[in-house]
Each structure stands twice: as structure tokens, then as C-alpha cells.
Amino acid sequence: MTRRAGVITRAEPELGAPAGGAKLGLTGGLAVQELGWDEDVDEALRDQLMDQIEADFVYEAVEAVDVVLLWWRDEDGDLVDGLMDALKDLSPTGHLWLLTPKVGRAGFVDPADLADGSIGAGLSLTGSAQVSREWQAHKLVRPKTGRK
Prior knowledge:
The protein is of the alpha/beta class. The protein has helices spanning 43-53, 79-86, 111-120, and strands spanning 2-4, 7-9, 32-35, 65-71, 90-101, 124-130, 135-141.
């Protein structure tokens, strides 16, 4: 936000600031599986991410994927179950980006539920990023002691 003469306005991203997709650190050559797509997802963010990996997302994995993108809303059900399902095709060294509506938006997930869900699924929440106007991303990894 920018303050001008007592007025607060939403600032546009600064020139050179990374686009939301760049904050996820995806690069060409990664196999990225997308789960939880629905009509409310951010299509511009999806396009950025596919441009970054220089490929389409994987939907039916034949072998382990490097990254899972899981779009999740509060009404989608039990977060632990959703995370466990998302891990099915993830490589042992891969990570998961959980995309949730921002706080205050329809379907937002309470931060306490995120913490509990990650623990319940045996994952560590390592960071979050604001990736679009409506969505935020949370990086989840398997604890190092659990990797083989």
C-alpha cells in the first residue's frame, strides 16, 4: 500500500518485483502436479507457473513428481486427508505448495488449521508467499528425518 496525502491506495507491483509465480521458485524441467483446480483459481498465476516450468501441469502422474500444487479451500474437507492424498505422487525429495484463499476471502483456511494439518500429514510448514490478489501459497516439506 502507498500513502499519499492521507490517502491509502493499493500499489501496483514495483518494476522488477517478482510475479507471484516467481515466488514459488519453479524452473524448467520440474514435473509439477496440480490438484484441487476449480473455477475460482487464479488463471494468470497458473499461466505464469506453466511458463516457468516450460510445460503443462501433470494430472495423472506416471512417475514421481518434483512439486505438487494443491489448491485448497476451507470447504474442501479435511486438510490432513487432502495433504496425504497430495503426497501420493510426490518424490521423496519433492515439496508441496498449498494454495489457499487469503484471510478474509471466501474459503480461507485458518492459520491454526494449516499448522495442525501440516503436522497431521507429517509435513513441516517452511514458509508462505503472497502469490496473487486472492491466493497465498504455503510451502510444505517432509521433515529431513523422514526422507529416504
